[in-house]
């Protein structure tokens, strides 16, 4: 049977970073991946552009039962060091709106290719198309099995990722392997996904984007907020602003929740009345359904007038005070009952995972089994949309590969 000093299971972002870090320190590393090639999910990130990190990446952008666990790793491999690391292996990057960092090439392929070349250059042995089913410890040695024993090693890093993005390699294998060593998991839920709502209005707006302030309300209390782009879909609302609050919708899926959208987040109520009054004065014969034309996407504007129950034959000058206040109110606080979120297959990240309190935050080593480590999404840490999840993968992978003694 093969032997290695260190085996990493999972050649996604965190596993590749862990393997590279250890190999750069002279360790003999084997990296095992169940898919036919390394970094399969990375290729699909950021819509094929790979949003590799975010210059704002810091603890407030992360979530988990014990989120403070992430701090040491994020400080050990902060954003600047991540960018320098990528530059050192030949990947140039650029910073875009919101602090999002992308490869200069605009292509996720470049990220995967440079990582692959670095793995080859540092002598990491890659075993592709090998699905690991179990791992056991005999004395000081880990034995790792697919259908048969595959390899023996002294140190083992579990970097199998989470359940999100099933078609791209998301699986629950990492949880199973770590649980077999006595670890436990918090409840897991799909995050960074579409929020499914009562579909009638979103369906009529399918494909329309809007700049919103979004809130999730439970019995009159706001439990999550975000701002930015929302995208209407067949079954609900998607887009970055929605992704950021989808975690709350997923973990509270047994509760009565509403998604509330403000389509004029940078305008006051008075601004909106002024806008309508100006139209009443200057274009009195304009159809009332066109009152928001010029302010919002035409389809969205018309929908809000319909939603406010305004007769489609009315003209702007005939709008009563009561009708105007309905239009303004609904445009500032458009309410959609939440039906749920997308499943793991469409979600970008997993909320929840293996309990961080069972690992040492300085080394990523298990407190239960010596020589066993975990990094990346398999642990109960998830970040907001915008490069934060990959930064967690790089930082935690780096730390796991760095401190193996
Ligand atoms: C469509 C999509 C777009 C995204 N875009 C972004 C983005 O732009 N920016 C960002 O920050 N985050 C993004 N994310 C999230 C980010 O990709 C993940 O959080 C990150 O990849 C997690 O890294 P990881 O190493 O923990 O897991 P993964 O990258 O999922 O890697 C785990 C690897 O382990 C392998 N594996 C699993 N089980 C086994 C087994 N039993 N045996 C062998 N191998 C196994 C898997 O095949 C996989 O290759 C996106 C996610 C998705 C799904």
Domain count = 2
Structural class by sheet pairing and helices: alpha+beta
The residue-averaged pLDDT reads: 96
The CATH architecture classification of the largest domain is 3-Layer(bba) Sandwich
Count of helical segments?
Answer: 12
Q: Indicate the low-confidence ranges by residue numbers.
A: none
Could you state the oligomeric state of the chains shown? single chain
Could you say which small molecules are bound to this protein?
flavin-adenine dinucleotide
Which CATH class of the largest domain applies here? Alpha Beta
Largest sheet, in brief, is: 7 strands, mixed
Rg, nearest Å: 25 Å
Annotated CATH homologous superfamily of the largest domain: FAD/NAD(P)-binding domain
**The CATH topology of the largest domain:** FAD/NAD(P)-binding domain
Helix content: 25-40%
Taken as a percent bin, the fraction of beta residues is 15-25%
